[in-house]
Amino acid sequence: MHRIKHVVRMASSSSTNATIASRHTQYSHAKTGGFSQEAPTLHNPYRDDPILDRVLRRLLPESQYVKVSADLTKFGDRITSEIEHLGRQAELEQPRLEHQDAWGKRIDKLVVCNEWQKLKHICAEEGVISIGYENDVDPFVRRIHQVAKLFLFSPSAGLVSCPMAMTDGAVKTLTSLNLYGKHKLATEAVDRLRSRDPTSAWTSGQWMTEKKGGSDVAGGCDTYAVQIENDTYRLNGYKWFSSAIDADVALTLARIVDSDGNAVEGSRGLSLFLLRIRDDNGNLNGIQMVRLKNKLGTKQLPTAELLLDGAIAERIGEPGRGVAGISNMLNITRIHNAVASLGYMRRIISLARDYSTKRVVFGQTQSKWPLHTTTLAKMEVETRGSMLLLFESARLLGLSEAGKSSDVDAMMLRLITPVLKLYAGKQAVPLVSEGIECFGGQGYMEDTGLPTILRDAQVTPIWEGTTNVLSLDVLRVFSGKENILLAFGKRVSQLLSNTKSEEPKLQKSKESIESALKELQKLLVKASDSAVQGETRIDTVARHISFAIARIYSGALLIDHASDSTVANQSDIEVAYRYCCEQPLIDLRWEWFANERVKSDRAIVFDNYLGLQKSKI
After folding, report:
1. Which distant-in-sequence residues (6+ apart) come within 8 Å of 177 by Cβ?
2. Domain extent for 599
3. How many domains does the chain have?
4. What's the CA dihedral at 476, 481, 485, 488 to 10 degrees?
5. pTM for this prediction
């Protein structure tokens, strides 16, 4: 009996010890954070996009759609398997500048990571630029193809998308000036900038911004050109923001100095120049890289202050016509800017959508909580509206380059370019911020890569003209000889003409667009008449006008898309309805135009202001 009790006691003791050991292991496991949250997965961004394929089906002829779709599918696979990693590494291994060698010689050596160079090679291989200029493809088709590919590429590109924008703009500028085949450097530049061969392909910079310039390119240009012979000059000046300084060539503005040492001020004095950044031996062409900019985002991109100290450059275009010469470039780079804005918006939604199927909160995944899906749906509706506006710009640009634009098409291209850029940029930052919040604390952690999207998106309202500057550009479009307001109304009416009568939500959406258009036209006509009398200031509400145009145009495009039964589905109808009927399309009041409003604004802003420059306000 004693032996039996002893055995039982030993067994009990062993069992207790095992239980304690098991619990100790369990608690230790808990202490070390045994749970790990599954990260969001980036799927093929073309196949995973909810609307892109349907947009391309509508815009492209069937035979061309098949080719474009196959290319984008293949490219989407390359993004997930290769490009995304390269772009992330470019963020982690940022560029640096070495001013001197070990013996004190000034070398201004820019060091970028291998991944940055590989991304540039991929751009050549994939034809990111050349697609837009292939002679055997209809310009209408090739621009839509290019914009779609850039849209997929941009959020994974490690900011190589920036030199691609400037490269595209340079090709457009040089070809528009009819220099190909006539000017040696320009011809070589065009061939290399649009080359698919990574070993010979070039990229271009655009050096327009100076210390006192910013968006005021004409008034702030303090770079001067002294003629050597014929069209060859030496440039001297200080470029304040110069991105992608590892480019091969650059376009820049300068004022030509005459034989008496004088230069014409203002925009009439600016001429356009093309220069090689380095000579054949790799030495900088009269350029000093003063320092790299310490930026909030776009840290992958080498942006520098440059001192031009006798840089040899070729004048292209007519003297004093530099601003006109860069107009084509700005149109291209502003579309690229909008591509970046939309790319960031789509990327954060795609990742948040995938994460919602994996993240369990309060007993179920985020995807099953209505409040969360409502948040994602609102982001999706806004993104689709801007996305259709982007592809409308690609369509209009393609028609223009193909020589097939109607008068209305031509006027809409001039209108939509600044409107698209400013609106997409202004939507991107708050939308990406909302998307970051969908990940909770993880969205705030740098090593997830998610904050990079927000920091990089913040530049899009600034690059290529701030929101206010572009809003004033929109007003200048309206003040031209053509009746842009009438043309805008015609385009909107055209988009609404095929609205499905059997779909009540589309009919209500149409009525909402027509009402907003009528209200905008009425206000602008009234404001124009009053401005002549000095009673109102239209520029005070330039932003509101631009936003109204963007929302009316986007809403009409959504309705037109949803009315196409060959590609649209029920969600397209719902998106059009929510965009047009569940949020204001126009936010304008007549009293905002009044001159007294400007005085009140100043009183509010400078109330109790103690600055020494108060007398200048």
Report:
1. 186, 316, 317, 325
2. 483-607
3. 1
4. -100
5. 0.92
